[in-house]
Amino acid sequence: MRGYTDNRDDYLKRLSRIEGQVRGIARMVDEDVYCIDILTQVSAVTKALQAVSIGLVEDHLGHCVVDAARQSPEAGAEKVREAAVAIARLVRS
User: Fold this and answer.
1) At what angle are helices 8-30 and 35-59 packed, to 10 degrees?
2) Contacts of 80 (CB under 8 A, 6+ apart)
3) Burial of 7 (0-12, 13-18, 19+ CB in 10 A)
4) 56-70 burial string, b = 16+ CB within 10 Å, else e?
5) Which of 34, 65, 76, 81 is the most buried (most CB within 10 A)?
6) What is the tens place of the pLDDT at every residue in 61-91?
7) What is the distance between the terminal CA atoms of the chain, rounded to a whole angstrom?
8) Percent residues over pLDDT 90 in the chain
9) What global pTM score does this model have?
10) Mean pLDDT calculated for residue range 30-34
11) Distance (Å, whole) CA 91 – CA 27
């Protein structure tokens, strides 16, 4: 079981909304909408994806890292390193 399993339906709904927003942005480009209006929508999608990412990190820390730490200090430390790398990727993006 993954850390996000309990929230899977919520994540799927949020991602479906984001998918719709991205299709809307493509339509805006196709219809030659004003650049700033498109950028506003891109910003909204970016924030929505960041919210999903934060939720997944939280689920990972609360489930996967905690479970690994219960198994052994080494396993816990490895999951913490794994999470740190993922968080660093998110911060850079």
Assistant:
1) 160
2) 65
3) middle
4) bbebbeebbbeebbe
5) 65
6) 999 999 999 999 999 999 999 999 999 999 9
7) 28
8) 91
9) 0.84
10) 98
11) 29
Amino acid in position 14 = R
Task: Give the chain as a 3 state SS string.
Answer: CCCCHHHHHHHHHHHHHHHHHHHHHHHHHHCCCCHHHHHHHHHHHHHHHHHHHHHHHHHHHHHHHHHHHHHCHHHHHHHHHHHHHHHHHHHHC
- Name the amino acid, one letter, at 51: A
Look up residue 4 and give its amino acid.
Y
- Could you identify the residue written with the tokens 């994540």? 11
Amino acid (one-letter) located at 36: I
Nearest to 22 by CA among 42, 43, 48: 42
